Amino acid sequence: MIRLFFFFLITILLSNYAYASNKDKIIEKFEKIENLSFNFKQIINDKEEEGHCIIKYPKKIFCSYKSIFNKILVSNGRTLVIKSNKNKQYYLYPLKKTPLDLILNKNFLLKKFKELNGRLIEEKYYTFSMKYENNRVDILFDNKNHNIVGWQTEDIYKNLASTFIYNLIINEKINEKLFILPKSY
Questions:
Q1: From residue 128, how far is each of 12, 76, 82 by CA, in Å?
Q2: What is the spatial distance between Cα 64 and Cα 83, in angstroms, rounded to a whole number?
Q3: Whole-angstrom Cα distance, residue 97 to residue 99?
Q4: Which of 28, 62, 109, 121 sits at a 20 to 30 Å CA gap from 170?
Q5: Which residues are paired to 165 by β-bridges?
Q6: What is the pTM of this model?
Q7: In this predicted model, what pLDDT tens digit does every residue of 36-62 receive, in sequence order?
Q8: What is the C-alpha to C-alpha distance for residues 14 and 20, in angstroms, rounded to an integer?
Q9: Torsions phi, psi for 122 (to 5 deg)
Q10: Cβ distance 102 to 108 under 8 Å?
Q11: What is the rounded distance in angstroms from the CA atom of residue 181 to the CA atom of residue 81?
């Protein structure tokens, strides 16, 4: 009976060490990131879109979607613009009112990663779940290489958006002009 107790105790301690180790490695790697470039697949309410994004910390993003409507999403750090040739649409939002405000805020994320206990999913992903004001965000990392592989957000209307990242490039030289907001139609 005592051997069984010690076996479970050691298993639990080693398991917690593995989680802490992954968390520490993710934080260490994430601290070194200045920008990210990646392809993505995004699913919002059963609608799937693909494209390419560049994130530059703090709070800048440029995404171009693969579609006939030339949709782009741009943030200059304060404002988020979504522009599409479909119906000549042009949407302007304060960044702080969107879940992207959290995802693009590296200092906020690092603080949360340090405070939160992440969780391992199927030995493949390590995730941090956070809620701030009216936004819920789950950030997923690869459990082996500790790179970010996506996120899931829930907005104030309870719309679930899942973004999966692939072909990730870290700290690539980027053109700052990408983050200039497009002009309206």
A1: 20, 26, 27
A2: 10
A3: 7
A4: 121
A5: 40
A6: 0.83
A7: 999 999 998 888 999 999 999 999 999
A8: 10
A9: 50, 35
A10: yes
A11: 7
